Amino acid sequence: QVQLVESGGGLVQPGGSLRLACVASTNIFGIYTMGWYRQAPGKQRELVARITAIGSTNYTDSVRGRFTVSRDNAKKTAYLQMNSLKPEDTAVYYCNAKRGRVDFWGQGTQVTVSS
Fold first, then answer.
1. pLDDT tens digits for 32-41?
2. HEC sequence for 23-69
């Protein structure tokens, strides 16, 4: 069982930035693909960005160029740098660790973009 703990959410004005972090409890963090998902009220959870064990990244179209996913395997941590935030980015953001059919979820952190 892998525990994931997200942090870094909060309230920010449009155009602002936040950096989310996800710390994993496993000592084999490096083998997992780490993903960031979000779920807005009344909407389905969607993939925002992910980074594989070898560092390949992909992003959903709505955040490409504004968000950056990264990882520090020594710290067992994944990050999501969010710039130029928009009100439509408001959601609960979840961290996910996946390898094969096994995946784990964090508890989520709220991001609210509002003036």
1. 999 999 999 9
2. EECCCCHHHCEEEEEEECCCCCCEEEEEECCCCCEEECCCCECCEEE
